[in-house]
Amino acid sequence: MSEDDMHNVRLALTVSPLNGETPASIGSRLAARNGVRPRDLCSDMGMRWPFLCSGHPDQLALLADVGGLELPHLELWSAQQVRTGHYRVGRTKSSTGVFRRTSSRVCPTCTEEALAEMGRYGAHQLLEWNVLCLSGCARHKTALLDLPRAATSHETYDVVAQVDLHRDLVKQAADRQQVYEATEFETYARGRIYGAPQADWLSGLELTHLHGACMTLGAAICGAPLQHFSSYGQAQEREFCVEGLRVLSAGSESLLRCMEELKARSRSRRPYYSTDLGAFYHWLRAAHERPELQRLVACVHAFAVRSYTMKPNRRVLGRPVPGVQRMSFDSARRQTGLGVALLKRLIGHVDGLSDTETEALTETTPEQLDRALEFWGGLRNLKTTAAALNVLPTQVKGLIDKGVLRSIRFGTALRYVYAEDVGLILAEVAALHEVPGVGTYLLLRDHCRNHRIGLVRLITLWREGKIEGLARVADVTGLQAILVP
Ligand SMILES: [Zn+2]
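Above: inputs. Below: predicted complex with zinc ion.
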């Protein structure tokens, strides 16, 4: 037969493809219907069975011709390889992680029904059944059955022969009636296989990544310990996927909130993103270079650098840490020269924290430290204050006790005066009328001695407006410049 003739051949007995049925399954049924083996059918029709199984476009076109089939259907369900280990699965994609192109995984109930209706050529393979993160048939909810592999993948693709060979296994599985109600995750994944990707930030993820992200995040949410992660059974994995999808499908803010919660309930002695995010982080670290995962990577990276103390030269998921976002009190102590206890109390004061919250501080941020240092810069100790006012430290304490100067303590006996108050009182002295010499006035010190009045009392009365007519002499500093009439 010439090549032109072959293209005009149409088989007398055809089959009607089912929604989602693979071209290999259609070829297998077509051969059975016509009483030959798929290999023989193919060679008779100028096709090659192994190439048809791999979904070569020219083979699909020939199959469409000889079987009177719609080419777009064959192309859609051919699981064409897009690059090594990556396949088109209906209207989505998957790598080999959760997709096995060369396996016979069938619904026993669908198979039993089709066999009863059509005979042996009813045995068929839907592409979605080879997606391992789907547990049950969409129609019957029956657990999908993995048939033993044949000697070669091309024999495995012959679903009619496979079902013939393992007829008893299929029957037993159908009788067992193990039910897997589709989970939200499975419905979501199936929606992608048959329709367009959902309009959310996960739309670029192929099925293996979608499954990996949802399952590992779900495991972290459910508190599954990392070291036992692989020992969880199917039921738990299904539960993890649902938990993970619930958070992830809601967007990046939802993931950030979830990670905050994971951090908040961390029981680790030294909390760190790699332990707090558990299986989810370990999954993402292994896959972080994939372009389609960059939005997830950016989200986890942002969370890690803003929530944990880390050295500036570190990288998180391959990305640099932008400056120092969090710092330990040890770094803060070295940077400022102030003790950790004092730093904590300063921060507690400026940020209005309770004593318990102040005690519980384990790290700080540059912004928080700046606030604390700015406040600290506005305080003077007693000695400096005494020097500025040109009085004794005990007199400073007296002025504090009288409320002339405000003071603050930080958990110790040491008192600090607000520099602002010192500046104010000195400004008032400077505003007094300056006279060229002592003249009829008395220097403050002499006045106090002669009139047996304390300096503190006199200054307090002056500040209360009860003493008037004071003047000031040049060349003397602080309060001692005051002249009393
Ligand atoms: Zn079924």
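The first helix runs from residue 3 to 8.
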